Amino acid sequence: MARPRAQPDAAVTIDGAPVRVFSGESLLAAANRAGIPIPTLCAVQGLSVWGGCRVCVVEVAGDHTLRPACATTAVDGMEVTTGSDRLVEHRRQIVELLFAEGNHVCAVCVSNGACELQDLAVDLGVDHIRFAYQHPDRGVDLSHPRYGLDHNRCILCSRCVRTCAEIEGANVWAIAARGAGSRLVAELDEPWGESTSCTSCGKCVAVCPTGALFDKGTGVGEMRHDRDVIGFLAAAREQGEWHDREQQP
Amino acid sequence: MAAALDLDVVTAAEQTRRGRYRQRVMVCQSISCLAAGAQATRTAIEQATDEEGLGHDVQVVPTGCMGLCSRGPLAQVVPRGGAPTLYGDVTAEAGRQLVASLPRRAPPPPAAVTDRVLDPDMPFFACQRRFVLANAGRIDPERIEDYVAEGGYRAMQTALQSMAPDDVIEAIAASGLRGRGGAGYPTAKKWRLLAAAGGEHKYVVANGDEGDPGAFMDRTVMEDDPHRVLEGIALAAYATGADRAFLYVRAEFARAVERLDAAIRAARRHRLLGRRVLGSDFSLDVSVRIGAGAFVCGEETALMASVEGGRGTPRLRPPYPTEQGLWGAPTVINNVETLANVPGIIGRGPEAFAAIGTSASNGTKVFALAGSLVNTGLIEVPMGITLRQIVEDVGGGIAGGRAFKAAQTGGPSGGCIPAELLDTPMDYERLQALGSIMGSGGLIVMDDSVTMPEVARYFMEFCRDESCGKCVPCRAGTVQLVGLLDRICTGAGTTRDLAQLESLGQTVRETSLCGLGQTAPNPLFSTLEHFRGEYLDLLVDGDTAGGEDG
Fold first, then answer.
1. Residues of chain B whose pLDDT is less than 50?
2. B 257-316 residues with CB < 8 A to A
3. At CA B540, angle to CA B534 and CA B541, rounded to 5?
4. Smallest Cα–Cα separation from B534: which of B478, B450, B461, B463?
5. What is the pLDDT of residue A179?
6. If you write DSSP's letter for every residue of A4-59 in order, what string do you get?
7. pLDDT score recorded for residue B214
8. Which residues pair with B381 in a beta bridge?
9. For chain A, which residues lie within 8 Å of any Cβ of chain B, measuring from their own Cβ?
10. Pairwise CB contact (< 8 Å): A156 & B465
11. Which of B295, B317, B466, B507 is the best substitution to test chain A (most A C-beta atoms within 10 A)?
12. Angle separating helix axes B254-269 and B226-240, nearest 10 degrees
C-alpha cells in the first residue's frame, strides 16, 4: 500500500460526515483519524492487513457485498456506512461466535478490564451468548520463562504472528491446523520455552487483544498468599524474635 | 536440438499403425470402471487376444471415460472403417467371450456378448454433445501420438503460425467461453487483463483442485486427455504473454498427476512445450504443483498461497491475481475444464462453440451425474439443456420406482432444485436466480427417501471440516450452523433454533472472507426456500410463534 502523503488528497463520506483521506489509506485508518469508531480485532497500525476477524465490515454505497474496512482502500467519493442495524447484528454475532468458540471467562482472566474482545462485547451490548459454548480443551503453554500462552483465550487474530515476523523479525509464531482446530504454534509446534528463535522481546504479548498471551505472574491462579508473614511479624513484635523466615517459592 | 515435431507426419504414422489392425478394442480404464473391475477386464481381453492368436488383427487400447459409469466396466469395439459397438458390464469373463467373437469366421457372438451391447441411440448418449470430452474413451491418454492423431496440438500450431496473441483472445471472446469453475466469469475478459499487465514474468495456472463431493469432471479430463489441458494452457499463455504455467492438482488425483507429468515430458521432448515451441518465439515452462487436498485451495488466492509453498489460506481481493498473483506477478487462474475447451474453440472456430448452448451461456458443460438415477456417470451436455432432460433422458429417470425430489448442483457452494423447477434450463444466470450455482459440475439427484435438512447438514459439515480457519464467521459460524442443524435433524430443534439458523447463516454469507464461507450457507438456504415444511415438521415446538432472543 502506498505511503500516505503529507496532505489528504481525496474525500469520502463516512456515516454522512465528509472525511479527507490520504491516497492509499484504508477506510479503517481514515475513520479512526476522523474519530469515527470502527471496531477491529485483528488490525493493528504498522502490521500487514489480515482481514480475518470481520468485525470491521462496512457498507459501501453501490456495493452489494460488505467490505472489511481494514482492507478496503478509501477511494474518492466513496459513501460508507459503519453502523447500520445489519452491520451491528453481524458484529454481535461474530463476537458471540468468538465467545462461544473459546473459553473466555472474564472474571478469572489476566486481561479482565483490558481486553479488546471484552470491550467490543460491551460496546455492542452483548450481555449473553446465543450460541452453544464449545468448551474446548486447548491447553496452556507455560514453558516460556517470562510469558504464558493460554490457547483457550486465543481468537486466532494473528497479530502476534505478524508482529513477530514483521516487527521483531523472529518468525516464532504460526497458525497450524485448520478450521475449528486451528491453533497458534511456536516454531514447528514446540513448547514456546524451547523456541530458539524467540528473543523474549514480549511484542506478541503487547499486541494480543485478549488474555491469550500474558506476562507470567499476573494470572489469577498465580496469586500466592503468604500467611506466615503475620506470624513472623507478631513474633517479632511481641517476643522481639527475628527468626529467619524461608521465602515462599 | 531436436527438430520440432511435424504433426502431419505423426498423424500419418499413427493412422498407418491403426490401419494394420482390423479391430480396435477400447477398454475404459477410468476411475469408475476401474472400481468396477476394468483392470481385470483389460488383462482378460489382452490375454484372450494373445491366446486366440489375434495379436496382429486386434489392437487393445486402454482409454479414458466413456461416460456411462453405472454400466462399467465399459468396452468398445471399433472395426476398421465401421461403426463402433459399445458394451456395458464387461466383466473379465465377458471380455474373453467378446474377444472370442471377433475373428472373421467366428460363430455368431453368444447372448452373453450381444446382451451387453449398449444402444448408441439411447438418450444417455443422444442428448450429449462431446466437446471437452471429445477424446475421452477414444484415445490412450498415455500416448501423445494418439492425441496428435485426433487433431491434437493443431490449434496451438495454428495460433503460433497465423494468429497474433490478441487474435486468440478475440476468438475466445467471440466464442463466449465462461469460466467452468463455477462463477462463469468471461474467460477472454480475464485474459485481456493479464495480457495488459506488465512485468518480467506472467503466470497461467490451471485449477485442478476439484473438491466437491461426488465430482470428477476435471479429474477425468486431466487423466483421460492430459494433452488437451496442456494445449489449452499453452494457448492461454500465448494469448496473454505468460511464460510460466502451473497445473495445480490435488494429491488424491495421483493418476492425474502421473499422467500430466508424463504428458509434459512427452510434449517437451517433441518441442510442443518448453523453449521455442514448434520452432516459434513462444516459450512456456509448465509444471505440476501437488496440493494437499484442501477444499479451500480451489479458491484462487488460497491456491496461489499453496503454489508458492505457503499455507493454503485465502487473502483479500483486490488485488486480483491478474494484478498481483504468484510471487506478486500477474497471474491468470482458469479451471481445467475452461482450458480444455480452448483447443476446440481455436481449432474448430469460435462459431462452432458459440452455436452450442444458450445466448448467455455458450458451449457444453461436463457434469458428474450421481445419485438415485438409472444411468449415472460423466456427461457432457449443451448449456441450456433442462434439468428434466438430464434427469429423465440422460439419467434414465429415478431408479427403484421412487419419485424425484431434488437435484443438488454446485456441491457445497450450490443449492438444490425441486421438482417444480425441473424445466429450468441449465445456465449460469438461471441457476443463480434459483439460489443455486452452476458450480464446477457436481450434479446429485435425490429421490423422495431423502430428507432435505439432512442434506443441508451433510454439506454444512463438509464446509465446517474444510474451513481454513482464517476468518471468524466461517471458522466458528459453520460449527454453530452444524450444531443447530444437528438439533433440528435429531428432533430437538425449536423455532428459535430455526430463526437463529437463518440469522447466523446470513452473517456467515455476508461477512466471510472468501467464497467458501460466503457460499457455505447456500445448501441451507436453498433447502429452506424449497422445503421449509420439512424443517418445520422436525421442530419440537412447531406450532408456537418464533421465539425472541432470550
1. 1-2, 544-550
2. 294, 296, 311, 315-316
3. 100
4. B450
5. 96
6. P-SS--EEEEETTEEEEE-TT-BHHHHHHHTT-----SS--TTS-----S-TTEEE
7. 86
8. B365
9. 49-55, 57, 65-66, 68, 71, 89-90, 93-94, 97-98, 100-101, 128, 130-132, 134, 155-156, 174-175, 177-182
10. no
11. B507
12. 60
Are B477 and A52 an interchain contact pair (Cβ–Cβ within 8 Å)? no
Q: How many helices (H) and strands (E) does chain A have?
A: 6, 10
Other CB atoms within 10 A of residue B222 CB: 30
Looking from the CA of A67 toward its CB, the CA atoms found within 13 Å total: 23
User: In chain A, which residues have their Cβ closer than 8 Å to the Cβ of B511?
Assistant: 54, 57, 66, 90, 94
Query: Which residues, other chains included, contact A67 with Cβ-Cβ below 8 Å and sequence gap of 6+?
Result: A27, A57, A58, A59, A60
Count Cβ–Cβ pairs < 8 Å, chain A vs chain B: 96
- Side chain identity at B388, as an amino acid letter? R
Under DSSP, the state recorded for A73 is B
**Rounded to a whole number, what is the distance in angstroms from the first to the last CA of chain A?**
51
Q: What is the ipTM, given to two decimal places?
A: 0.90
Inter-chain CB proximity B469 and A94 less than 8 Å:
no
d(CA A115, CA A92): 16
- β B285-291/B244-250 pair status: parallel
Structure confidence by residue, pLDDT tens digits, B141-198? 999 999 999 999 999 999 999 999 999 999 999 999 999 988 899 999 999 999 999 8
To 10 degrees, the CA torsion angle through B125, B130, B132, B138? 80
